[in-house]
Amino acid sequence: MPRSIHGGRHELGQNFLTHTPTIALVVDLVRRTDGAILEIGAGDGALTKPLAQLGRRLTAIELDEHRARRLARELPDVAVEHADALTHPLHGPVIVGNIPFHLTTPLLRRLLNTRTWSDAILLTQWEVARKRAAVGGSTLMTAQSAPWFSFHLHARVASQGFTPRPSVDGGLLQITRRRKPLIPIDEKIPYERFVRRIFTGRGGNLDRIIQNAAGVPRAHAARILRTAGLAPRNLPRDINAHQWTALWTQLHRTSS
């Protein structure tokens, strides 16, 4: 195949999914959702072709113009577009894709700041998928997004399930927008700042971190922790979505 104007396979970060059970799992997860589908990074159509069989409106975007052109010829009922996922509008209820591993974080940030989709089913680097799903502890990005999204890790995909084979395994991650947000969307920016202060705050124990970050007496911080089901020995990574909501609600109420 001719070289893309954006570079070869290595420069495009393309690791094509070849693991049949994972392809079937992705399609099954999409089948459980509703509405039009937007596929990111269609490649040679390993996911596009079975997704097209679901009989739903499907748009597939691909950065390699040669692959996009060939896929459009093969699948005339699919809207195949030569486009960059970092700039293309992420519209539609369902987003699905085998994400170029080196673009995982910027694409996730775009998704989590876009309000037009309900479910995202993504193949990412294993470590990224694990962290987003808070396996082994939450991360700043997950904690900042948790009041509006839930994260579920479905599977680990061995590196040999891709061609060319990447140096790390993949992970199948599903992100679902909460129908009832835990925190009003108009509080998103101050909430994100609050979470960042807790994650980056000093103090050793969680009650002291909250004391310093929120500017409240330590005894008050300790009471808030108990109400949220947390202990001073806990770390920010130990806090789940509902506990973050409880902390924010009590501290926001106190400062209002």
From TrEMBL:
Keywords: Methyltransferase, RNA-binding, S-adenosyl-L-methionine, Transferase. S-adenosyl-L-methionine binds at N15, L17, G41, E62, D84, N98. InterPro entries: KsgA/Erm, rRNA_Ade_Mease_Trfase_CS, rRNA_Ade_methylase_Trfase_N, SAM-dependent_MTases_sf. Pfam families: RrnaAD (PF00398). PROSITE patterns: RRNA_A_DIMETH (PS01131), SAM_RNA_A_N6_MT (PS51689). It comes from the Bacteria. Residues 22-179 form the Ribosomal RNA adenine methylase transferase N-terminal domain. CDD domains: AdoMet_MTases. PANTHER family: DIMETHYLADENOSINE TRANSFERASE, DIMETHYLADENOSINE TRANSFERASE-RELATED. Belongs to the class I-like SAM-binding methyltransferase superfamily. rRNA adenine N(6)-methyltransferase family. This is Ribosomal RNA adenine methylase transferase N-terminal domain-containing protein.
